[in-house]
Amino acid sequence: MRSTKSYIYSLCVIAPLVVCVTAHAGAQDDAKGFVEGSSLSLLNRLVYEQLDYQRGNTTKTVAGGARSDQAKEGAYGLMLNYSSGYTRGVVGFGFDAHAFGGVNLGSDADSVRSNPRYIAKENKDLKDSFGRAGAALKLRISSTELKLGEMRTKNPIFHSSDTRLLPETNRGWQITSTDIPSLSLQAGRFTKWTDRNARKNGNELLANYSGVNADSFSFAGGSWITPIKGLSISSYLGQYEDAWNTWYLGSFYKHALADKQSISLSLNLYRNTDTGKALAGKVDNTTWSLMASYAFGPHKLGLGYQKVDGDTPFDYVNRGSIWLENAMQLSDFNAPNEASWQLKYDIDLGQLVIPGLSAGVAYTRGSGIDYKRAGNIYNGFLGTGSAGGKHWERDVLVRYTVQDGQAKGLALELRWGMHRANQAQGELNVNQVRLLAEMPMKIF
């Protein structure tokens, strides 16, 4: 007999198809045509990062040999994205395509980590340039869309990261539907993955912390804008084949106060349990975060708490599939049994200095880490393997986006981070500086 979870999962997959048949009006009614509705854009991105390791910590470089207490990378990326319109009629057909390329800007094998963050490598050699391309067919009925091929995804359990030089992509199918007012549904199954600095598409799916590969990741769920003003709820079910099942519950609430003030609450909860062959070992993990924020004028203060209840780290597939509030620049604060606090402050300097300028600072501290029962599969994060792990991180972000003129849209960003840990925590002590410049261009 099938489990209740299986029935719910099947319902979530079928629901968008049922909706598209019963809906009377939708986005397809306004289809402009394959060519008439098409668009082409280009994003230029320049990144430089320097990592300085502290307290005797070092990193292995691509060249091998002696370890280094510093890692540096610089790269330039180009992201060309094409999206066709939909053909007219009850069923609309379309086509999306992308081409990504990266260029090494002087980084050498003696100064780049053995697992580069931005640049592609081949054995002990760095590639001077690398690139990849992909495409997806799309079909739309009403406001329900099916995509099949290479694409980016966006949801809390299978999210394509775009925090480095080039974005992640995945190969498979995905259905999205917004035919029901205030409800957005989504389901998909993906069998291949392309990392941010990969030289080709179609690699095996990979778990971030256990490092295990699996044949597929399937998911279904959605988000609901409730009748309560300012409150939205989302929930997803997913399965990393023969590794773990995952369930996500998220909620966001914002309440406006007088004089340009507001308070907000953000909840993210994940529940992972092993399944099938249990490739990642015995997984029984509940991890959640809660962030409370108070905004007044250009200022915003936030206080967050995050807890991992389980003997293994909170693990996930795809680099961006962690929507926990304390997942920071240098650490996710997701170790076994870890509890962490975060204090953050953001300011919109556009109201005080120059339009388009913003800044933020954050301090996060975690403790109670215990890897003793995690299993050897997590050796890369064990530290001494003892209890009592603790660490902290400080982060600063400054970003400026040009608001008008010929350079409109040009964004300049500076990130600075500092991470410190004891031996039982397992991650390295490091200072980070990252500079980014990006310029979007709409070709047509």
UniProtKB/TrEMBL annotation:
Protein name per Swiss-Prot or TrEMBL: OprD family porin
Any Pfam family matching the protein: OprD
Key words of the record: Signal, Transport
Signal peptide limits: 1-25
InterPro entries membership: OM_porin_bac, Porin_dom_sf
SUPFAM superfamilies: Porins
GO cellular component: membrane
Single GO MF annotation: porin activity
The organism of origin for this protein: Comamonas kerstersii
Organism ancestry: Bacteria, Pseudomonadati, Pseudomonadota, Betaproteobacteria, Burkholderiales
PANTHER family linked to this entry: CHITOPORIN (PTHR34596:SF2)
Domain of life: Bacteria
